Amino acid sequence: MQKEKRMVLMLAYMSLESLVKTLEIGEAVYYSRSRQELWHKGETSGHFQKVKKIAYDCDKDTLLIKVKQIGCACHEGEKSCFHYDLNKYLNTKVDVNMGDEDRSDVLFGKRMGILAAVIEERYKNMPEGSYTTYLFEKGIDKILKKVGEEASEVIIASKNDGNYELIYEASDLLYHLMVLFKVKNVKLKDIEEELIKRS
């Protein structure tokens, strides 16, 4: 968080080692889970974060770091990583007379579009600490392995009582399929057109 403007700048992961390093040098140091190494914010860009205060939440599992931001926080050149407006992706009008299931179907389609846009952004910019970046860096063999694993998890979850595990694993499978679609240049409209042929 930018101390002077109280602006949320970014969300990042910290390990105990990176927290200790942050306290030692007075600048934000994070941990890159994809590269499995410490990440000193600004080390390559010069956009350092001077730490002013560190607070933690009531569950003691999240830190709020107030900083003086040097330059931009976002690798895309923006002050904050939270500079995308969700509303522009939600421009499909939902009929108020629709039933709950029909309305949910429309919104689900929009959410898939949002997910596709996020994956596209990850593919273009490869932000540090992103699991999607990690998959793209590892390549198609890793992605295919994950798709296979998640498909197996869906089958196993379907054999259990209740639907929570099935919903959870199916969501994982859909996400990894979307990543695969990006690598193979398959668009959601391509899937939609094929499904229409089968209806």
Number of strands: 4
Task: Give the N-to-C terminal Cα separation.
Answer: 49 Å
Q: What is the domain total for the residues?
A: 2
Q: What proportion strand?
A: 5-15%
Largest sheet, if any?
A: 2 strands, antiparallel
SSE pattern: HEEEEHHHHH
Query: How many helices in DSSP terms?
Result: 6
Q: Going across the major beta sheet, what is the strand order?
A: 1-2
Structure description:
This protein is mainly alpha-helical and 199 residues long. It has 2 domains: 1-82, Ubiquitin-like (UB roll) (Roll); 86-198, Orthogonal Bundle (Helix Hairpins). Helices cover 47% and strands 12% of the residues. It contains 6 helices and 4 strands, in the order H-E-E-E-E-H-H-H-H-H. The protein has helices at 16-25, 100-125, 131-138, 140-158, 164-183, 188-198; strands at 29-32, 37-40, 49-56, 63-69. The strands form 2 sheets. It has a two-stranded antiparallel sheet with strand order 1-2. It has a two-stranded antiparallel ribbon with strand order 3-4. A hairpin with a 4-residue loop joins strand 1 (29-32) and strand 2. The radius of gyration is 20 Å and the shape is elongated. The termini are far apart. The model has no long low-confidence stretch (mean pLDDT 86).
